[in-house]
Structures are given as C-alpha cells and as structure tokens.
Amino acid sequence: MLSPYQLLKKYNIRPKKKWGQNFLADANHVQKIIDVADITSDDTILEIGAGLGTLTMPLTHHAKNVLALEVDPIMVNILQNELANISNFHLMQADILKVEPSNLLQILIPDFSVADDYIVVANLPYYITSAIIRRLQESNHPPKKMVITVQKEVAQRITARPNDMSLLAVSVQFYGKPTLCHTIPAQAFIPLPNVTSAVLGIERHAVLPITIESKLFFRVVKAGFSQKRKQLKNTLAGSFHVSSHEIANRMQSVGISPTRRPQTLSLEEWEIVTKCLIDFI
Description:
This protein has 281 residues and is α/β, with parallel strands linked by helices. The chain has helices at residues 4-10, 27-37, 56-62, 73-82, 101-108, 129-137, 152-158, 167-175, 214-225, 232-240, 244-253, 267-276; strands at residues 23-24, 44-48, 65-70, 89-93, 119-123, 145-151, 176-184, 189-190, 197-204. The protein has 12 helices and 9 strands. Helix 6 runs parallel beside helix 8, helix 9 crosses helix 12 (267-276) and helix 10 crosses helix 11 (244-253).
C-alpha cells in the first residue's frame, strides 16, 4: 500500500482540520499499536476514523474481520479504492457518535453476533476523544478492549490515581482499566499536531468494581467535581440542598473526611460516599 504522503499526492487532497485529521505516517508506531492490541486471528476489529488506511491494512493482516468507520466521504473513496480486494475488510461511512457500534458489526459482518466480543483500534480526533470513549463504554455492547491514540495529556488524566483524579478519570475507570502504553511524537503524523500523542489501552472490567447503580454513583461524582477546589462537604451540600453539617456527619460516619476535595477520592471511596448520601440523591 502507498504511504500516507503518496496517497495524499495521488488523490490531490489535504487533511481537514474540521475533522481533526492528523494521519499516522510512521510504520514503527503503527506496529507498536498492533502489538498493544494483541490481535488474534479470531478477533473482530472496529477501527474508528480509518483515514488513509495506514492502520487498517496491517489490522486486516492480523484479525478475522475489520470494520472501518470513516466520516469523510473523500477518505471513504480512498479506502474503497485502495483496499477493495481485501476480503476481511468492511467499510461504513458513519459518525461513531451517531451509531450503535454492535449494530453495525452485526449488519456488515455476517458471522458476528450480539454475544461476540470485539476490539476498538483507533487514532481518535483529539477534540472528541472523551465523547467517543464515553459512547463506546456506555454502549449496549461495549468493546472488550480499546487501543486508541489520544493526546498525551488526556491519557495522563484518564490513567490518574487518587490526588490527581478528575471526572474523566472516574468515568473511564468505572468501566475499564486504562494503561498509558507509549507516546508518539508529533513528527510521526502528517500534518504535525501541536501536541505529543499517546497510545492508551483500556481493558473492559469483567465485573464492574462499583456495585451501586451507575446513575446514582455519577450523580454524586458529578456533583463533587462541579467545584473541584472546594471541600466536598460544601460542594455536595449545595448540589443536594442540605446543610454542610449534615453532609459532614454522614461522611465522617463512613470514615471519609468531609474536608477532602474530589480529586483525592478513589472509585471505592466515591461509592462509599454515594451510599451514605443515598437518601439525599
């Protein structure tokens, strides 16, 4: 297959900023992504934002089936032309934020069923990274694993531990275990982005680590992070319209200091706080 540089020249096109198009052009980093994904010949891959097919082609060499989603009609045309003869390659022009992934897999891949697992591999547009991760993790049929290229700073936020937690970190870690696998310099892309990138792996939890109902859990977490510089007793009191004294008493009764700030809590501690405030929610 032609290189990204050659394909851009062949089709006389330029990457579009509105779709966050920065194409990975370094074969070594492509191989690193494949290695992290640990794909077998039985795996089905959903690739989001296939672009010029730089990652798509090697994915087809390892997986049973690859379904590539691409929103840009020009890129769809290139993919159709360049990968037309690959039997395990499937293509759909679609916006991942507007479709149910497993429905597309069942429609476009004949032997894929609702009981089957799949892996997401993607070089995500940085401006909608969080929205795509949330869409996948909260879908009716979430992937067993995601291997995604994101902004390094975002990867660091997602993999944070207590004292550096954020709403994003709690949300992602609720559904899976994230790992920052390696970084990719701007020079590996065309055009060059203004940031360093990172490959982030997210393994879906076989069993959710939190037992309380997710809507209740996130109602408390979102309330806590609504004013992250404030002490939790004050933020939660304002959100649930009770006195800070009452919140403090409840938190102290379960062994969590009411003067702590949201970034210091683990997921397990958020669950404890949610349970102790359950009649206020």
